[in-house]
Specification:
heterodimer, A: about 250 residues, mainly alpha, 10 helices, about 70% helix, about 0% strand, elongated, B: about 500 residues, alpha/beta, 6-stranded mixed beta sheet, 5-stranded antiparallel beta sheet
Chain lengths: ~250, ~500
């Protein structure tokens, strides 16, 4: 859907920002000179359907980039801690516990104060907090794998530590890694929505699901509840499907 | 004649269309010991699991008769089974460490059985437990009953498991490889003890084992299974001394002989195809003594932490090891003697101290063959990748094409084919994996090969094949070898010189 956005949306302006005060708050299915408004229009007369679709791009981008950043930091940290053990492990585990103990949302808010508001800051902040989970999983996997004979065999064969860590052990941690990525992706989506709802995520007029809920939650008690319910349902749906995906993956043999 | 304890007629068991047992017929009378012998995949455990009601629900069972105490056991309810198990039918498992709960005192664990099946009071239960421990010849049963499983040796633990099985004076005892996890030296005594207790109580013993030689000592009758088929039955002594079926002959003939060192050893196919070579030239020790490796004053210790104090516990304290070119040095000893630690220290997997360590080549020329063929290979990698990365590391001058040719040659050297390069370890049997482990070590072009219990996890018929591969490459490449094993026959056959190690206290 996110990829097909340019074809399915009515409003081709970059942020679906084509305002027209002549068509504000039309009901779903209304027709104007723009075409059919499947989900109606918002209070500025923008096509709601187009904005919902484009909003998925923001959410998915945040998910992808945050997960990538968390992998980029989490894999090496977890791998080195688990593989080498000893003082390095103690230090890294301590650092992880410290970061872990700070509520994610709070940390993200603090980071956005430092880095300023905006979508880029959000995914950097989310990525920087989520790597701890990745590192923990990877460390646990490495602790289990490193005592296996194939690792000892690789040592005897004279392979270097980076070779053993990245080429021998890492591929065997793939299963749990995929699971944690899917769950992290889901929580990144939630954090982004939460932040946008609080007004420190994506800034208007950029359409984002969380921002749209924020914009329309007063309408919940009017007849236009769907304006905020639709993006809400999409967030719930995406998170649910990602979590289901990760469960299926982890139960697969 | 009293009614048989177990009577099975024409039993076939399949899992998802895959036949694991075919036309198995078996009658066990009170006071009788029958051994079911076979290698992995022979179906020897499946029938016993069925007789305990422990078979997976997906199993497709077809039987003319399957009776336990003259009742049709296939119709038993799960309540009936749980009344029978531990009470009238008891089981002794292979690994006493996993059969016992690690964090409950053994006396308490045994009492639980009595709690479940009797209404004795606490003092009587304790008395019964101590009595049972005394019967299995555990020294000082009163204080032993207060111990945790990890405070006992493997042999003692298995005695506890036997005592637990005998507690309720069962009519049938099923022992699945009861001595396989134990040292060779205690194996015989444990089996004899089990047999004695069972006979005294008038129960029947159903013994399952891969080792015909060991069970022949105690069993009245033997049933030999091969790929789910019964190939031979008869009195134990007769089957052992005069086997009729080629497979049974092979099972006995593949073992390294008690004397002489014929090379190659006959393998199972020789017996099945009746192509057993008559007289083979013996392996001989090299005549010239040219030292390859000398270690003097070797000490290996592990740190023990008790509270805040760190102490070092030595497993090897000041021994000398030297190895001549082209010779096989054997290290033998019971578990805890530190024989594996020596091998691991030489390749740098253990830290060690020594007054002098000299080796003529560079360290990468010493390679290691591991015990467990399943964990020694990286499950996510293809065989080709494994060999290629070792070749790249040790012979960087080779081009990719030359490397793939070399990898192919290595696999052929250990009796596999070029097609196996694209497979992952999962596609291979234990023996084949061990060959891959050997090929991988050879890719580093070693001068010394250290084999740590490298054939101990393998079936007898596969063992001889792998021993042949090892002796073959040693001869062709002029390697020196350190061979570590707990099996005296294998050590005697393989080695030119033997070092015996005993545990330090």
């Amino acid at each position: 859907m996110a990829v097909a956005a340019p074809i399915v949306v009515l409003d081709s302006t970059s942020n679906a920002n084509d305002m027209d005060l002549n068509r504000v708050l039309l009901g779903p299915g209304s027709k104007t000179d723009m075409g059919l408004h499947l989900f109606g229009t918002d209070k500025y007369g923008r096509d709601h359907f187009s904005r919902v679709i484009l909003g998925s791009r923001i959410s998915l981008t945040v998910g992808f980039i945050a997960v990538s950043i968390s992998l980029f930091i989490g894999i090496p940290v977890g791998a080195f801690a688990g593989y080498y053990g000893g003082r390095l492990d103690q230090f890294l585990t301590w650092a992880m516990s410290v970061l872990w103990s700070i509520p994610t949302l709070l940390l993200v808010i603090a980071l956005t104060f430092v880095l300023g508001k905006g979508i880029v800051q959000v995914f950097i902040a989310v990525g920087l907090t989520m790597w701890v989970e990745v590192a923990r999983v990877i460390r646990g996997q490495f602790l289990g794998e490193k005592s296996k004979e194939y690792v000892e065999a690789a040592k005897v064969l004279g392979f270097s530590a980076p070779h053993i860590i990245f080429k021998e052990i890492l591929p065997n941690t793939w299963g749990p890694l995929v699971v944690i990525c899917a769950t992290n992706f889901a929580s990144a989506l939630l954090i982004e929505s939460g932040l946008s709802f609080l007004g420190i995520g994506a800034q208007p007029p950029v359409p984002s699901w969380g921002g749209m809920i924020r914009e329309y939650y007063p309408y919940l008690i009017t007849g236009k509840a769907y304006l905020s319910l639709i993006p809400g349902a999409l967030i719930a749906g995406s998170v649910l499907s990602l979590n289901t995906l990760s469960t299926v993956w982890s139960e697969r043999d | 004649m009293p009614a048989p304890v177990v009577h099975i007629d024409q039993l076939s068991i399949a899992f998802g269309g895959h036949q694991v047992l075919r036309d198995f017929t078996f009658t066990l009378n009170p006071g009788q010991t029958i051994a079911v012998v076979g290698e992995s995949g022979s179906g020897k455990s499946v029938a016993a699991l069925m007789a305990m009601g422990l078979l997976d629900k997906r199993a497709e069972i077809k039987a003319g008769a399957a009776q336990l105490f003259s009742e049709d056991l296939l119709s038993f309810s799960s309540e009936k089974w749980s009344d029978l198990r531990g009470n009238e039918v008891a089981m002794v498992f292979q690994d006493p460490m996993t059969a016992l709960h690690p964090s409950i005192r053994i006396g308490r664990q045994m009492e639980e059985v009595l709690e479940r099946h009797t209404d004795l009071n606490r003092a009587d239960r304790e008395q019964a437990v101590i009595e049972a421990l005394r019967e299995v010849e555990i020294s000082d049963p009163e204080s032993s009953s207060k111990k945790y499983p990890h405070e006992m040796s493997g042999g003692q633990r298995q005695r506890v498991v036997i005592a637990m099985a005998m507690l309720m004076k069962p009519k049938l005892i099923i022992a699945d490889e009861p001595t396989t996890a134990l040292d060779k030296a205690v194996e015989g005594t444990i089996l004899a003890l089990l047999n004695k207790l069972v006979r005294e109580s008038g129960a029947a013993l159903w013994l399952i084992s891969h080792d015909l030689e060991v069970v022949a000592e105690v069993a009245d009758e033997v049933v030999v299974l091969f790929r789910g088929e019964t190939v031979e039955t008869g009195p134990a002594k007769q089957v052992f001394t005069a086997p009729k079926h080629p497979y049974t002959k092979g099972l006995l003939g593949c073992r390294p002989p008690k004397e002489g060192r014929p090379f190659p050893l006959p393998v199972l196919d020789d017996f099945l195809n009746d192509t057993v070579p008559s007289k083979q030239a013996d392996l001989v020790a090299p005549t010239a003594a040219e030292e390859v490796m000398t270690i003097t004053g070797l000490r290996i210790g592990f740190e023990r932490r008790s509270g805040f104090r760190k102490t070092k516990q030595w497993v090897i304290n000041g021994i000398d090891v030297h190895l001549n070119r082209g010779e096989t040095l054997g290290l033998i000893g019971p578990s805890g003697s530190g024989k594996s630690s020596i091998g691991r220290a030489i390749v740098g997997l253990n830290s060690f101290e020594s007054t002098a360590f000299s080796y003529t080549g560079d360290a990468s020329k010493i390679q290691f063959i591991f015990q467990d063929p399943f964990s020694a290979l990286n499950g996510s990698k293809r065989i080709g990748w494994m060999l290629d990365s070792v070749l790249k590391r040790h012979q960087p001058e080779l081009s990719p094409l030359e490397r793939s040719k070399e990898a192919q040659a290595l696999l052929e050297e250990v009796g596999l084919t070029a097609a196996d390069l694209n497979k992952r370890p999962k596609a291979f049997s234990g023996g084949q994996r061990q060959r891959i482990g050997i090929a991988r070590a050879l890719a580093a072009a070693p001068e010394v090969l250290i084999c740590d219990e490298s054939v101990s996890a393998l079936d007898v018929s596969v063992q001889s094949q792998v021993l042949n591969v090892l002796n073959g490459i040693k001869k062709n490449r002029g390697l020196s070898m350190i061979f570590i094993s707990h099996d005296p026959d294998v050590i005697r056959y393989m080695c030119d010189r033997i070092m015996e190690l005993n545990p330090l206290d």
